[in-house]
């Protein structure tokens, strides 16, 4: 799928929000500036978040809960995580019982959570982004709805 710019990335995030449920894991991979946070912002806005969601780069985990959003979401940015022990301190395992996880830079914690929808972004020469999805069986029906 080709995303022409930030607006298209946010629109994709909004479509993703329509099928997101508690316990879901969505991972966003790609280089700096590829649009990972734009997708997350579109998702959070479509879930009801008023205002723009900040990037969780420095906080690492930015929680959102009802009534602020329709589905509780932990927006996670693992860019600054360097050691596996740091992941244990974040408490992401327990979060899946009552939240969805949207994880940027998931390659820094491979295998740390159940299989989910894995999205990868590639920057194209014209400024657009190529989005590639690895869709597990639990997401197949919902992916077709998008």
TrEMBL record:
InterPro entries linked? P-loop_NTPase (IPR027417), T6A_TsaE (IPR003442)
Where does it mainly reside? Answer: cytoplasm
Q: Which domain of life is it from?
A: Bacteria
One GO cellular component, as annotated? cytoplasm
Provide one Gene Ontology biological process annotation: tRNA threonylcarbamoyladenosine modification
GO MF annotations in UniProt: ATP binding; metal ion binding; transferase activity
Compartment list: Cytoplasm
Q: Which residues form a coiled coil?
A: none
Swiss-Prot/TrEMBL keywords: ATP-binding, Cytoplasm, Magnesium, Metal-binding, Nucleotide-binding, Transferase, tRNA processing
What does the sequence similarity comment in the record state about its family?
A: Belongs to the TsaE family.
Give the matching NCBIfam families.
T6A_YjeE
* Protein name from the UniProt record: tRNA threonylcarbamoyladenosine biosynthesis protein TsaE
Taxon lineage: Bacteria, Pseudomonadati, Pseudomonadota, Alphaproteobacteria, Sphingomonadales
């Amino acid at each position: 799928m080709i995303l022409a710019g930030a607006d298209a990335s946010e629109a994709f995030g909004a479509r993703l929000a329509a099928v997101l449920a508690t316990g879901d894991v969505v991972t966003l991979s790609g280089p700096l500036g590829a649009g990972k946070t734009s997708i997350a912002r579109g998702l959070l806005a479509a879930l009801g978040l008023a205002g723009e969601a900040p990037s969780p780069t420095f906080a690492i985990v930015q929680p959102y809960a009802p009534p602020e959003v329709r589905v509780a979401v932990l927006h996670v940015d693992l860019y600054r995580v360097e050691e596996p022990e740091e992941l244990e301190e974040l408490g992401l395992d327990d979060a899946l019982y009552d939240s969805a996880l949207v994880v940027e830079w998931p390659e820094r914690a491979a295998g740390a959570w159940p299989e989910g929808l894995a999205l990868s972004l590639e920057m194209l020469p014209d400024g657009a982004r190529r989005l590639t999805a690895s869709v597990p069986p639990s997401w197949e029906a919902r992916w077709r709805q998008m």
